[in-house]
Amino acid sequence: MSPEEVQELRARRYNATVVYLKKVHSDLMVVRVRPDFPRPAHHPGQYCTLGLGYWEPRAEGCQAEVLTPDDRAKVVRRAYSISCPMEGDDGNLYDPAGTDWLEFYIVLVRENADGRVPALTPRLFALKEGDRVQLGEKIAGHYTLDPVRPGDAVVFLGTGTGEAPHNYMAWELLRRGHAGPVLNACCVRYARDLGYLETHRRLAGRYPGYKYLPLTTREAAVTRKVYIQDVITGGELEEHLGAKLDPDRTHVFLCGNPKMIGVPVRDKATGAVTYPHPQGVIEILEARGFRADVSATKFKGNVHFEEYW
Ligand SMILES: Cc1cc2nc3c(=O)[nH]c(=O)nc-3n(C[C@H](O)[C@H](O)[C@H](O)COP(=O)(O)OP(=O)(O)OC[C@H]3O[C@@H](n4cnc5c(N)ncnc54)[C@H](O)[C@@H]3O)c2cc1C
To answer: Cα(13)–Cα(135) distance, rounded to whole angstroms?
Structure first.
């Protein structure tokens, strides 16, 4: 594809600019994107799409890709939760009124176990500030704070970049002066994968009702090596929350790796529930009287989830 063709495709297909890009490390980044159109109204927890043309360069060290000439002119899009800086540059709580961008928290998928070549993240990780992208004009999703009542305990459990929507929702609860305790736990492989750690620590120091619980599975760093399921069954989660996991007064939000979430299959005819193995968080919580949402609109329980794949 000639440079003129690339220029023409970019002009025609892109509608937003990267205004900030911070690599937490080579495979993890926080990126802010300013749309050419007014930032769409949305709720914390929702997502939109980012897209780039197959003609764009890819980060090095990713699974090899073979494209047909037809593929080259297409745009690949994926869903991304909207994240939140939580703090402004002045150290106060972030004020969106002073900004015109959306923040995203993205991990580089270098290769897929199932053989499908990851198309978008290798290209997103070749971006720099000032580059253009395609931003979906519609912000969507039912993973929001709607079911939370004033005074409820709120527990966010995320894996990796699954903390993105939780950061936005936790910020919203702090902004509202939510009266109940808020625990935001994030499970990653290594401590270096905790891109918002210092922000959370500062906020937890300032807001007595807010706690951040970082968990690492591959190294004993910030905590011992541990999975989210372990801190629930071992009772540590309640200790950190400072309250019992009471189904009548608690909402749990689960985001990221489907294995952590463990969405069951519910047989409509018999009502039988089959949980996946290894055991996910939904099975542990439902054994304690919680009930997970059945689908976005069918049944709203007190365990809400967003699977990233
Ligand atoms: C509603 C929704 C919101 C999402 N929000 C985010 C977000 O905020 N940040 C983000 O990094 N991703 C997010 N994702 C995942 C994102 O849409 C892409 O799937 C991901 O960026 C990989 O794209 P790709 O084209 O490079 O690889 P794909 O070809 O799409 O590869 C998908 C594979 O990559 C792996 N994978 C996908 N996402 C992740 C992840 N976050 N962490 C670890 N492994 C992953 C899985 O093995 C999955 O099978 C979200 C997905 C959904 C459905």
So the answer is: 10
Calculate the alpha carbon distances from 223 to 183, 216, 276 in Å.
16, 6, 27
Segment 202-218 mean pLDDT = 95
| Helix, strand, or coil (residue 167) | helix
Domains in the chain, ordered, with CATH? Answer: 3-135 (2.40.30.10), 153-307 (3.40.50.80)
pLDDT per residue as tens digits for the range 248-300:
999 999 999 999 999 999 988 998 999 999 999 999 999 999 999 997 667 88
Choosing from 62, 76, 78 the residue with most ligand 1 atoms within 8 A of its CB, the one to mutate for a pocket test is: 78
Task: State whether residue 151 is helix, strand or coil.
Answer: coil
Q: For position 296, what pLDDT does the model report?
A: 65
Pocket (CB within 6 angstroms of ligand 1)? 47, 78-81, 104-107, 109, 112, 116, 118-121, 160-161, 164, 306, 308-309
Residue 39 has pLDDT above 90, yes or no: yes
Could you tell me the distance, in angstroms and rounded to a whole number, from the CA of residue 152 to the centre of ligand 1? Answer: 30
Is 0.85 topped by the overall pTM?
Answer: yes
Dist CA 166 CA 172 (whole Å): 10
Q: Looking at the DSSP assignment, which residues form a beta bridge with residue 49?
A: 79
